[in-house]
What does this fold into?
Amino acid sequence: MGWIDEVFDGVRYGLAGSVIAEAESPFQRVTIIDSERYGKGLLLDGCWMTAERQERHYHEALVHPALCGAASIERVLVIGGGDGGTARECLRHPGVQQLDMVEIDGLVVELSQKHLPSLGAGAWSDPRLQLTIGDGIAWAANAADASYDVVIVDGSDPAGPAEGLFNRAFFDHCRRILKPGGVFATQSESPEAFRQVHLDMVLLLREVFGQADPMYGWVPMYPSGWWSWTFAARDGRPYLQPQADRAASVAAGCEIWSPRWQRGAFEAVPAAIERALNA
Amino acid sequence: MGWIDEVFDGVRYGLAGSVIAEAESPFQRVTIIDSERYGKGLLLDGCWMTAERQERHYHEALVHPALCGAASIERVLVIGGGDGGTARECLRHPGVQQLDMVEIDGLVVELSQKHLPSLGAGAWSDPRLQLTIGDGIAWAANAADASYDVVIVDGSDPAGPAEGLFNRAFFDHCRRILKPGGVFATQSESPEAFRQVHLDMVLLLREVFGQADPMYGWVPMYPSGWWSWTFAARDGRPYLQPQADRAASVAAGCEIWSPRWQRGAFEAVPAAIERALNA
It folds into this structure.
């Protein structure tokens, strides 16, 4: 036992535990730990990604505003998300008929399936899941116009393999491949620890989609603990209003998300961030 | 330079920096540090309390829902708050005529005035501030019925000198000394790191006041980074609706708080907490 820390900008967040697996993929260093407080967890290049007992804050927030808001949810694309948590939350919606998941790093999937089976849970064997190990940016570029109801980007920070998930060319394709009434969702970093990256993402998404709304919540293991997800749509802002039947089908199984929580999280824009976004 | 950490329940949060002053009071160990990321900071018995560039998340959230919601704000009582940040935010409201602040530990005030002058700022020399070094619990017990418009509890965790700030006898007095239309505010711990303490506080305040509402936000340096403040009133829930003139007088100077942010923070009740509060 010892401390496993992520150090960022003069701050460290550490969990007491031990490393149980570590390997280098062509893309990054993948580490699996076993912690006292949150069970087994995953780091990529030394940055906290997820842990068994601290993953729902992130996955519920990313998935349900999009899946409860889109006009239809038959075809869903998830880019990234190799730990399986995003796929699991998507597949809790019975209306999803096909979920294409494109993860660049097969080692993340392999080690998550082995050590963090509760993250993906039944998703890995769900016949609706089509898992591709490959480049999600190329996938989006090659997908047909108006071919997805929901596009979800579940990537890591804008450095290393996830860097291309934060630019206009990629977001243009995400919009292009959405069906009418479709919704786009992405994690959008911390308004505190990555303030400028967060602002740039929201403003760029507003340019590409016409409008985009950040939503604020918590992931204790991420830098500052304060996190955001940003949503945009082909038409209007349908992600702001969960459809009652879809919300009812998932709400009882959620730890964090509820229609009320979501309403609050979209409103809880910190004053200085709101001023910067409107400047 | 090195790391100064708070360790809690298998998790550590550390800032790179150095200790610049440390002393034992009759109540606790008081430590002042200088950090790279957030400037100078304060710990009590090894627990993070505040820092120059990370204090507004906490102080704005504690103060403005109460000061913008109460029927009148002429007489305000602050129990604890020895770093001065709560007094500073209160005194930004021109309607406050007298602010009684009762802090048990004179060493906290002394070291905060010396090392963290931006926390209290002009409050320390404001003629409206009546500072008493003494027992806030006894102060509340001895105060006359209906003598304060607002009562704010800015204490540390329920162990050591702050333990008596979390029980029914104390809350009964806080209610008794409020004027009609008056508002009570307290920090109410993390719904994640101190889940049961948080739930117990909200439920007890609902018993004492008839109703009480938790509000959720962020203090990155506190355990889990996810924090709450709970508000209650003599009559109704006036803290939910900021009065426009008072809000306008402070909003431009706020980093986090705004009427919109507050509306969201009261709604962003995590699903599992809402279920537990309604069980």
Q: What stands out?
A: Residues 38 and 54 of chain A are 6 Å apart (CA to CA). The first strand of chain A starts at residue 2 and ends at 8.
